[in-house]
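User: two proteins, same treatment. go.

Assistant:
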Amino acid sequence: MAATWIDLVDPSLEELRGKAPRELEETAVDRLLAPPQHEDEPRPTLQGHGDYVFGVFLIAVADRARDSVYYQEIDVVLTHDTLLTVRKTPPGSMPACDVDLVRKSVKPDDSAGMMAYRLIDEIAERYLTLVDDLDEEIDELEDIVETQPADRTRARISSLRHDLLHIRRTLTPMRDSVRRVIDNTVEVEDGAEVFPHDVEVAFNAAYDKFLRASDGLDLARDLLAGVRDYSQAKIANDQNEVMKRLTVIASLLLLPTFIVGLYGQNFVDIPELRWHFGYAFSWGVILGTTALQLWWFRRSRWF
């Protein structure tokens, strides 16, 4: 007997009870009907409930136009002959998870467990795509760090770091849930074979993709740390350049101030005081010492 895939989008209680493969526990019903929450809740999971398996999966999607990441929630109820998926529309007018390609890839003789594998494998594939998108974002940020204002760079680094942190919080529990299927530790009642041996073997491919996505996140975090360090070094270097210019200005003003102060002392017997060329001589000393300093600073590449 062929397995059945029932797909619902934001269902009502009546629709859910009418389409569910069997009577569900109240906690599962509440979770299936709950609106999508923020990125830390719900936590992805895959666990046995009597003779069926209940799961929550989150797909992180990069919105390049808004420079943000949003999450698509898809909940599953899995029995030995039925797969029920409940897709939820994210807040902010974002689209719900599209499973059309997965449904088209399902074979007529696929069991419900194999259907679940194909769905979870597609989720893992999308995380690999997400990691590639994040790498591109970090590369673009690195390219413009020289020309972009420091406050914008700092804000973008903070935003990307926040996204990486929350993506890991969704990716890690899904990876662990898939591992539990491979290890045959998803507990269901005796006789309710939800994950046959061939399905457990197939789940290795999805687990490998989740592992690669986790490694990609670690690399993205290291790349972002490199951009942050480079940005901080650039800020420090710019500050040094400013200090150099201020030092040059202060030094240029120091000697003229000294000369003017020297001739401004209230003494009668200053040699140049009654000299006809004394005023011109003091200006000559000021201009000469200033030119000498400018030459020296220019030679030292201070400006």
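Protein 2:
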Amino acid sequence: MARLNQTLSIVIPTINEASRLSLLIADLNRWHHHLEICICDSLSSDLTTFIAELAGAKVVKVKEANRGVQLHSGSCNTTGNWILFLHADCRMPKNWEEVISRKINEPTSKDYAWFFDFKTQSKSIEFNLLELAVNMRSHLFSRPYGDQGLLINRDLYDQIGGYRPLPIMEDLDLIERLSKEVKIKSLGIPLYIDNRRWANTNIITQAWKNANLRRRWRAGESSKSLVIEYYKN
């Protein structure tokens, strides 16, 4: 294993993610160097924080259900030269440790932001088409979203102002500011996304709904009003 000259912090926002967080932490434990994991929890009523603390992660508690606030708090409570932002319900590929350690050790990597390719845990045609559409958007237009993770050097993150305290569209807001400053590149490996958000809805309908919410946000509609609609059953 090559010597690592950089340090890595992982920031994960959570709300009642006990059943999924333990699986992600098991993936992260394959990291062979010092690793700082920060769980930014918002009002969990299950064993999320217990699992995080048992695994040796730092737990930061946020008093409101606001992912932008959680991500910002996590970044402020970590010390690594690099930050990897992840959602709690994702799973890492087998070779993630090798790819990330090599990437953060390359001097030129700090001049870019990095994302994972979108991969669902389903083999259905509908989900395959969704993966294709998301990855085309990400690669052609440099618009990966939060569930694809984000690896970024701390200096670059601070330079663009980090995550803003938005309850929704916090990832799009950050990516749009980032894309004005640097190129956003793929790590060339997948991040496996939980299918739960599409479990009780039509994929095309949900994708259209999300696109419409993004359009309205870009048109100036408040994220506080959009978040109610986004989480409405």
